[in-house]
Amino acid sequence: MKKLTDKELSIMNVLWDNGALPMRDILERLPEPQPHFNTLATFVRRLENSGMISHRELGTRFFLYEAAVTRDKYAEQLNKESVSRFFGGSYMEFISCLVQQQEVSIDELKELINMIEQSK
Questions:
Q1: pLDDT in tens, the chain (120 residues)
Q2: Cβ neighbours for 76, distance < 8 A, ≥ 6 positions apart
Q3: Predicted pLDDT at 45
Q4: Which of 120, 100, 97, 95 is nearest to 110 (CA)?
Q5: What is the pTM of this model?
Q6: Residue 21 in 3-state DSSP?
Q7: Which residues pair with 55 in a beta bridge?
Q8: Taking a C-beta distance cutoff of 8 angstroms, is the pair 41, 49 a contact?
Q9: Nearest of 7, 9, 119 to residue 75 by alpha carbon
């Protein structure tokens, strides 16, 4: 799965948040500055070619576009790649780094341990 650019991620967020939409509705929901319609169409085509978006035709030249990959699945893949790339695949090293940088508190770690124990 490819890593999304900021513009591609904006488009995916619109689809993840709203479900299937025609191109004009995607454009209306994008943050400012909104791209030109043709630019958006190019991004959507690229996302579709990469398997991130799919479309269905509802009428002549009327298409609905929707996310083909869930937000959770994309985040999961991105996390796996980051841990593999920067921490040699070790989630322990990743979490240790977060703790050292004070990004995760002890209470959050305890909550994480409880989640793990409950999922067993």
A1: 788 999 999 999 999 999 999 999 999 999 999 999 999 999 999 999 999 999 999 888 899 999 999 999 999 999 999 999 999 999 889 888 888 888 888 898 899 899 999 987
A2: none
A3: 97
A4: 95
A5: 0.82
A6: strand
A7: 65
A8: no
A9: 9
User: Residue 2's closest CA among 55, 44, 66, 47?
Assistant: 47
In one letter, which amino acid is 1?
Answer: M
Question: Which residues make Cβ contacts (< 8 Å) with residue 69, sequence separation at least 6?
Answer: 1, 51, 52
Burial environment of residue 49 by CB neighbours within 10 A (0 to 12, 13 to 18, 19 or more): exposed
**Alpha helices, H only, the chain:** 6-18, 23-29, 37-49, 71-87, 91-100, 106-119
| Distance (Å, whole) CA 62 – CA 82 | 38
pLDDT value, residue 105? 85
Paired strand residues for 67: 53
Distance from C-alpha of 70 to C-alpha of 68, rounded to nearest angstrom: 7
Name the DSSP letter for residue 32: S
